[in-house]
DNA sequence: GAAATTTATTTCAAGCATAAAATATTTGGG
DNA sequence: CCCAAATATTTTATGCTTGAAATAAATTTC
């Protein structure tokens, strides 16, 4: 683990920043640029092809993985978004007939959300198309670069997981 | 340039996807995960330390680079967001006294947005602190990994720039 | 030079996202 | 049992974001 993050070069004036710091900032700005570009492309395709949105796709994806359904709180922590946010997205998906809320035995506070049959069918189709879009948007990414990218980003992610010190 | 993106292995059933396609999807999901995590951390810091937001920071950053100011349309294309979006953010920054709108000579449709003196001063301070936050969040990222990341993401970005075919 | 088109910006409606407050229910002492 | 604390979820207020429509001014075309 890098422990140098707060150590300053004594030769450096306090209003300047190190080269490594600038390299990391550039890396972050590049991540941001790519993720916004790709997200924008995917959002547009979702809207035009399916009349839907990425957040709804994400909720359905999480539920597709756990066929028994999930609680609202499980959903919001799996997707790393706020509780209130999930409430709204689930509401819309219920209206569309993609999801149902099922009461939980012995806990009247909670409810479990599940894909309907229609929701499952729709998602299965959309997921395949979605993977095709992503593969096309990333068609210049070789297998080895994909692996390198994943490795590097995992290190970054794990460093920032939980442990708010 | 990879031209294979639409070629399917004839041995593969049409409802399955290739390994490279799955690797690219994993890479994309990892990018998304990291960028959301980091963006969340930075948003919180911005709010707590400066009572401000990332979109406002981004607008001020763009204007800091071009001291003569920018038109609304220049701003929105530099930040790659919609015109209407910029209108709202600029409105708030004007209210805060960070920005001014200056009419353009010979074109009464347009206006130029500039940082005020206070805006310039505030941004200079915030930018340094911001760089420190980023460097800390990415403190596990070595110089060589930062370079590798930037190189890989640049290829992805350039492939998706403009040329909507 | 009037009409049609293009360009620059704003407004609008809808959805996404957060933080904080509110509501409802369950659980854990005393 | 009662009540305080914890838990699950929704509601509210605010801001960001988009796409589309509206407004206004400049440019082009006839």
Automatic annotation (TrEMBL), chains A, B:
Gene Ontology BP terms: response to stress
Protein name as it appears in the record: MarR family transcriptional regulator
Provenance organism: Thalassospira xianhensis MCCC 1A02616
Pfam families: MarR
Classification via SMART domains: HTH_MARR
Domain called HTH marR-type: residue spans: 24-158
Record InterPro entries: HTH_MarR-typ, MarR/SlyA-like, WH-like_DNA-bd_sf, WH_DNA-bd_sf
GO molecular function terms listed in the Swiss-Prot or TrEMBL record: DNA-binding transcription factor activity
């Amino acid at each position: 683990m890098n422990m140098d993050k707060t150590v300053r070069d004594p030769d450096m004036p306090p209003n300047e920043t190190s080269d490594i710091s600038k390299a990391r900032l550039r890396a972050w700005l590049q991540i941001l640029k790519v993720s916004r570009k790709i997200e924008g492309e995917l959002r547009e395709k979702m809207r035009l092809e399916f009349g839907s949105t990425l957040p709804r796709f994400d909720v359905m994806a999480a539920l597709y993985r756990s066929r028994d359904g999930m609680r609202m709180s499980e959903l919001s922590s799996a997707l790393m978004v706020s509780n209130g946010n999930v409430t709204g997205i689930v509401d819309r998906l219920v209206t569309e007939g993609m999801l149902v809320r099922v009461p939980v035995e012995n806990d009247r506070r909670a409810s479990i959300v599940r894909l309907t049959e229609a929701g499952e069918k729709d998602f299965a189709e959309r997921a395949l198309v979605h993977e095709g879009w992503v593969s096309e948007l990333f068609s210049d990414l070789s297998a080895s670069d994909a692996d390198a990218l994943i490795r590097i980003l995992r290190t970054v992610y794990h460093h920032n997981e939980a442990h708010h010190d």
